[in-house]
Design a protein that fits this description.
Layout (H helix, E strand, L loop, with lengths): L1 H12 L7 H30 L13 H16 L9 H12 L31 H10 L10 H10 L3 H4 L6 H6 L26 E2 L5 E5 L5 H11 L11 H5 L16 E10 L2 E13 L10 E8 L10 H12 L7 E7 L3 E9 L3 H9 L9 H15 L5 E8 L10 H12 L3 E8 L6 H10 L4 E4 L2 H10 L1 H5 L1 E12 L4 E6 L20 E4 L3 E10 L24 E10 L7 E8 L7 H17 L9 H9 L9 H15 L2
Parallel strand pairs: 5-6, 5-8, 8-9, 9-10
Antiparallel strand pairs: 1-12, 2-11, 3-4, 4-14, 6-7, 11-13, 11-15, 12-14, 15-16
Helix pairs in contact: 2-3, 3-4, 3-6, 11-16, 14-15, 18-19, 18-20, 19-20
Amino acid sequence: MTDDLERLRAALKSGSPEADPARKADDIAAAMSAFDTAFAETAESAGTTQESSIEPRPSNSRPVWGRLIDGGISMIHALTTRAGLAATTGLVTAGLALLIVLPQDTAFGPGTDGAHDLDIDSAPEAPVLLDEPVLAEAELAMDLSSAAPPSPLVEQSLKVEGRLALSRAAPETSVVSRALTADSDARPAPVDVDTEAFANEDPSGVTAVADQPVSTFSVDVDTASWSVIRSSLMNGSLPPTEAVRIEEMVNYFPYAYPAPEPGGAPFATTLGVSPTPWNPDTQILHIGLQGALPALEDRPPLNLVFLIDTSGSMQDPDKLPLLKQSLRLMLGELRAEDEVAIVAYAGSAGAVLEPTPAGESSKILAALDRLEAGGSTAGQAGLEQAYALAETMKGEGEVSRILLATDGDFNVGIHDPEALEDFIARKRESGAFLSVLGFGRGNLDDATMQALAQAGNGQAAYIDTIAEAQKVLVDQLTGQLFAIAQDVKIQVEFNPAEIAEYRLIGYETRALRREDFANDKVDAGEIGAGHQVTALYEVTPVGSSAVLNEPLRYQPAATPEGANGELGFLRLRYKEPGGSESRLIETPIPAEVSQASVETRFATAIAGFGQLLRGSVYLGDWDYDAAAALAGNARGEDPFGYRAEALRLIRLAGSLDK
């Protein structure tokens, strides 16, 4: 080996020689012969010393330097496949140098596992083996865009020393060093929120009662925003501002509202006025609705079509695999007489499972297991086929629901989103509603998902964990699938003798015009069985130092006759499921201010948390610590730990927002 080393030193000191194909072939043959000889000698030595005490190692657990030889040979073979480029003596000598620098007494050997052969901390400092001329020559010889990649062992070995000579010789320009020192154990890239789209509007401002005494909005029982916020925080970053929809945050949590009286309206109303935690000169008006929850045996049969996105973007573990696990949970909650069908869509749409009784769970689960991600996303074709299939399943007195499960990456087939929404709106008239489940991050098209769910009279939820799937598809399944009231609208008329200003916290995407309230042609949200709706106003009493709007000269406040002691007047409109005419409920709002209940305090803490995430200008010095303290003191009954989780997330957001 002395002569070989002398030749190696001479080669390293010399300039780049001219390419010589014949010499290249001779050098490669010599190198391979030297490799084989070294391996044979070491293998014989290892067999002599360990034969009596150690079982033979499997072929994929050879000593690390032996596997490095294989990787070097594979790399050289790959490099010689480029007919237009000639490998030179420098490239061969570089391969020999990699072998020589790894002595047998380093921190790995035949008795260690191949996945952990290298001891990074104890590996000796390696000398600089390659100078710039040799590196330049190696770069010229290697076209890594077409050559086979080095073996995992070569990547691992070169990664440790840098970290060998290649990483220390021209790391800025060397293709070789950049490729071979790449970290094969790199963690997944962080979420790129720049490719995501969220449905939101600018936060509502303060409105003077003298200018606009009436506030109108559609109810919202979606919860997607909270799960997206949690996903961002658990990945170590604050959520995108536009992803924060405060009404969805507040409505994520259950509240102890009284149930409606049997035989009456499908929901009961709870009202309360209490001091504002972030402003002592304003008050919080808390409006709560509790939907009736009929007995399970009284609900009608369900026809359910799973419309599943199987495009290439769904292959991540938190997308299609989690989707399958989630739907497995849901199937256990269906009754035997319910029917299930599955439509998958990617480059094209197709029925994976024809309508099947829910009692045949093995058949349904087998169809789910066959789903694989691949192709582009023909979302429109999938929707059309799902509705067509739902039409064939419809029966008298039955409920039809399409459940779209996707990451929202509709990149094929939706050329006119407004036309698609119109298509879904027409289909809901037939009784087939559409709900949307979002999965995964990175290309989440929340805006499209929200638009489709609203057009389809359904809910939108985002599932980031199997625990969230349990909440949405098991604990709240009946509310997700069975409506007790449609087109539910809320209108509050404030008494100008009591209230100077108001601000609705959230519901920016659900705002309605005043005249929309009595117009039964205007669509609004639905309330499912057992669902709750929570809305919060921050109101400023007349005479308060917190009033922001100057009084009008020609419109003095007047007290309506009989309105003394009323903060305002609440009106609700709703339709029976499948109905065309709305019903009206009216309730005066007492002006009496009382100590906030546990439910009001917690809802207000979450609303304040949302405003902090959106950078609200109305909170003064109130901060995450104050929000955490308020939420922590208002946990109340928390059987599933949702409120405890909220407290942890508030504190985490406070740490990240510094």
